[in-house]
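Collaborator request, handled under Task 6.
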Amino acid sequence: MYFKSILNWVLSIGSVIFMFMVFFPTFAADTALMEQILAHYPEEFLKAFGMDTELSLSTVLGYFSFTFVFVQLLLAIQSANYGFHFLSVEERELTADFLMSKPVSRQKILVSKFLAAFTSLTITNTFVWILSFAAIELFNNGAQYDAGHLITLLLTNTLFQIFFLSFGNVISVSIQKIGSVLSYSLGFTFGLYLLNTFRSILDGELFGYLTPFYHFDPSYILKHNSLNWSYAFISISLSVAALGITYYRYLRRDIHSV
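Structure tokens returned to the collaborator:
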């Protein structure tokens, strides 16, 4: 059922990666000019758009860190969309009577749905890996880069996706009925994205605790070849808690039917 959705997301993410990376040779060729232009922008403005002043856009990984902010945004929307969708679809489409009349436990329904969504996200993530390396190899303009740092960044995608998937789950089983899945997923995702933007502009660590876009910041990961584990642990803990609450509430939820 998710095949067309996966295909659309892969094409969208791939388009973003290639659309940005095709301009890298231009940035690399005019390094001095670009750095002179960026020097006139406030540091807070650059950070708000994922441009770390310590990771030059003239380098492959520096430029890719800027590109990957938008890839993360698309991954977050897809993950949240699946999270809001797969547990609420029966109530929204009035097919709960049909599903619940089958000799299948709620536990099995929940686990099966979660694994289906997680598998779909994993397929998307696999293509993100392939497309990222392909775009960099095609447009790196002969510049060298550390593939190990790139692998470290891409390895964080799964944790990032699970966060939005799990919170989509817990919100969908905590409210009476979800009318429009897309509006919920966009509102939730862009809300957290804007929190990270405010954190960059205001340099407020409090906002950083609240958003996974900071917990899995591409610039930090590519610069240090590691997660900022003190923040990543927050996302991991919240994801586990959200999955636990989802399991508890779904097994006891009064599911509305026709």
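The cover message to the collaborator said: "The radius of gyration is 20 Å. The chain is about 75% helix and 0% strand. Please let us know whether this matches your experimental observations."
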